[in-house]
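Sequence in, structure out. First:
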Amino acid sequence: MLTTILPSCKKFVTVENPPGILTTEKVFADDRSATSATVSIYIDMMNYQFGGDGSFVCFSMTALAGFSGNELQWTQSNVNTPAFQEFTAHDLTPPNPNVAAFWKDGYNYIYRTNAILEGIAASTGMTADGKKLVEGEAKFIRGFCYFYLVNLFGDVPLVLSTNYQANMNMARTPSAMVWEQILNDLKDAKQLLPANYPTPERLRPNRATAGALLARIYLYLGRWAEAEAESDAIITSGVYGATLPAPDLVFKKESIETIWQLQPVRAGINTNEAFFFLTTVDIRPSYEITQNLLSAFEPNDKRKTQWIGFSSPVANPGWAFPAKYKAGTSVTVTEYYIVFRLTEQYLIRAEARAHQGGSKLAQAITDLNTVRSRAGLRAANPADQNAFYLAMEKERQVEFFAEWGHRWLDLKRTNRAESVLKPLSPTNSWRLGSELYPVPSGEIGNNPLLIQNPGY
């Protein structure tokens, strides 16, 4: 059986949504129903963004990894406080429900993509073009999910089928093998997906979407020439604008620099970022920007004035909150949730070029200054590669704050997490192994072959 939860969402796909639970034979009887099964995953990514379910992507990735990266701090005292503060203090425990949700939701989406891949392979009713598109999307989603799982947990079981008996007793797969599978999935997706978007408003991934994630992964793996090539292809395509749009236009649903975005599916809510982050006057934000992040902005940086709100600028100038998305509760949909955007590709290309040295360092600085210019800042001129890397670290901090956990993942991939974050830990609780989240205790209880990460 393939479970699909499909609220009405006509812009995602112009076919009727199937019933809640479908047999695989019916799901893959034709292109329309198979496409609906894929689209249901995007809908769930937006629908289950907060709480016990849905922490894998969207809002919870931003908020919880934002705690880990010292971008955000939780200021309230309620049922969420103990679990949230474990992220802030780098003192996670295996029973933490939000850690468990990352794992559970990631594998839920992976299981569904595996079911889709098996279903289209066996289908006799789908067209060749229909199979090609759905396979490309499924492999993209699977690679996307494994990217976050391997970054959060390290070695994770590499599940590539719906064989429940085999999957429930699977040991953790070495991360190198997981990374290789991610690359294979995304290379396949890039070949299978069309250059044009399957739907208006860039709501389903196209070839460039797979390329954008490939560029990021090559960067994470230190494959500099390949990272440069992937990002360069997107930048020079002309599809995403000849220049970067002004900061106040970046997070609009029609933003030219958007490579992939997810459509809101809850009535009256555009994005959960706006719904949970935005704060009224004289009320302390629940998700407050840390002083460390505030101090990272240079004077006159338009990103600070456009993307940060202050709920009490006179009495409490530190009461700051993320305001990249501004439509908190609105019947009119003006903002979609952006997953990939062009600015990241400029910074990927810059970093990849710098690592190759020689004349490419000057090209890297040009890319860096393209992003700084959009922010209204003067050009940077790092003296050497090491100075460039520090400048890049700071630039990514202020460009991608409160956005998909970039800061946390960046510090981990550059082996800078301990040196940067340990002194900022409020309880001095950073320990060996804090760079990875613990394997949820419930998963270890269900599968004795799973071994806990060191330090937990």
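Second:
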Amino acid sequence: MQLKTRHFGTIEVDEKDIIDFPEGILGFEYIKRFVILGKNEEGNPFHWLQGVDDPDIALVIIDPRTFKPDYVVEVPDEEVEILEIKDPEKVLVFSVVVVPEDLSKMTANLSAPILINIENSKGKQVVMDNEEYPIKYYFMEELRKVGG
């Protein structure tokens, strides 16, 4: 299917790559379908979570373990059931990135990771109650240290 996006122009999206977010994402609850762009770009830790239902919306995302290898997502049982997770190794974890004008001040939301079960293409943003993981986590220095 073709998608006319705000940031990337018209792109071709394979329907099998569409991820269903039954509850949407915080602030974008009305968007139920997304696709990940840029996941095949070697050496680039950033991707785009592109809205399919609203092509004007594209969120920058990153796997937080890229810069914080000890990052652990605590998923309540009811969230595991909603995502139908059978194998934790088949779940992608992303944080939404805020990109300000000064790129050295980019932040990642570690408090509310986006989980994607690649076995059934279901996604969900999970809000964790863990003070160790802030909503605005400045990560660029750590990313540089790991060579990202």
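Remark: The chain has one domain: 2-145.
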